[in-house]
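Work Package 4 report. The design task specified in the project plan requires that, given a folded chain encoded as structure tokens, an amino acid be chosen for each position. We show below one input record used in the internal validation round.
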């Protein structure tokens, strides 16, 4: 496996196309009803693997595109500054940006962990079963505090943080069912993996769209699994509870969303995401299985895309191998073989000659076998 300029360019192209397909599948459900959650997950995994390993595999077949890649290669080799080519400058810019984002992410991670720890120390501690009085639900620690803005999973600790709201028992149960699914699906760890991919590919705009769609997917799956055993009426009650809780959280600004620098460290919801979640709740078959044909087609598409290795195609620099007439006379030899063929030798290099009487070879010494 090798990493090259063209493997990175191919990775960018394929990832952008797949992200566009993902965007269409999630936003235009009427046109893509045959594609369900498992196919969407496979598509996300394909994008993640491509971005995580922008390499040319050993079995890839070279495809030469001189009309496109030759100008790109020439531009990248140009010296932008003395001793520094364009590709070196861009690579340095890329690595510097990734390093800054990675350092900022680690610093924010430590801050969020400390903040979450302080909140848990000061908050009222209870548990899922104690809070809703349902012994059949999975039991996790629950912390209630006025400093928490919305229900969330914050940090790597397997606990649920709730704001100090006056919710009904049914509303509280719906909130906890949703957050429990986030915990059991390990959505926090998945979100951190996506953030690190974003830290590396920070300059590629479609990756930000990918992050948003992965977050939406996690929310929809949490809702779908939370109401999977409920009938249509139960799903409607769950959706109404989500809307009512949202009004309690943001009575003055229902469209409020969290776009802070620390939003990547917890699972939380905003009104825009909530609207999308409720719309998906009406599609019960979204979390059902996709047909085997669609899944196999996606897998084959991923496999076939790895068969291509883009390359430029430059003609040999003939000007570097030309000799003057005096060079031919001083260093060249014509060789007449017994079978009637002719060869020309110069500086230890041999080549077949079809016309030994050429004007360029007049005066060159001849050796007969």
């Amino acid at each position: 496996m090798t990493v090259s300029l063209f493997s990175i360019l191919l990775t960018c192209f394929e990832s952008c196309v797949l992200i566009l397909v993902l965007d269409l599948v999630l936003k235009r459900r009427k046109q893509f009803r045959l594609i369900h959650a498992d196919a969407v997950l496979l598509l996300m995994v394909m994008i993640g693997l491509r971005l995580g390993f922008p390499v040319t595999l050993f079995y890839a077949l070279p495809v030469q595109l001189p009309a496109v890649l030759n100008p790109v290669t020439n531009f990248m080799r140009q010296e932008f500054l003395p001793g520094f080519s364009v590709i070196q400058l861009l690579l340095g810019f890329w690595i510097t940006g990734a390093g800054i984002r990675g350092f900022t992410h680690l610093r924010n991670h430590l801050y969020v962990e400390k903040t979450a720890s302080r909140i848990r120390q000061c908050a009222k501690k209870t548990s899922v079963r104690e809070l809703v009085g349902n012994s059949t639900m999975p039991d996790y620690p629950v912390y209630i505090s006025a400093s928490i803005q919305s229900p969330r999973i914050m940090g790597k600790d397997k606990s649920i943080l709730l704001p100090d709201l006056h919710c009904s028992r049914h509303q509280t149960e719906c909130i906890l069912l949703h957050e429990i699914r986030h915990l059991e699906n390990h959505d926090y760890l998945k979100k951190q993996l996506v953030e690190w991919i974003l830290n590396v590919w920070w300059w590629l705009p479609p990756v930000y769209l990918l992050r948003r769609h992965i977050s939406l997917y996690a929310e929809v799956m949490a809702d779908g699994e939370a109401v999977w055993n409920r009938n249509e009426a139960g799903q409607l009650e769950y959706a109404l509870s989500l809307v009512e809780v949202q009004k309690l959280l943001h009575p003055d600004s229902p469209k409020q969303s969290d776009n802070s620098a620390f939003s990547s460290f917890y699972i939380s919801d905003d009104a825009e995401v909530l609207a999308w979640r409720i719309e998906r709740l009406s599609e019960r078959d979204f979390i059902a299985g996709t047909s085997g044909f669609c899944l196999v087609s996606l897998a084959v598409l991923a496999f076939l895309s790895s068969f291509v290795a883009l390359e430029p195609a430059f003609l040999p620099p003939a000007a570097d191998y030309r000799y003057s007439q005096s060079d031919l006379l001083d260093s060249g030899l014509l060789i007449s073989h017994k079978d009637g063929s002719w060869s020309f030798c110069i500086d230890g290099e041999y080549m077949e000659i079809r016309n030994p009487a050429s004007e360029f070879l007049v005066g060159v010494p001849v050796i007969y076998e």
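The chain has a mean pLDDT of 82. Validation will be extended to a larger panel in the next phase.
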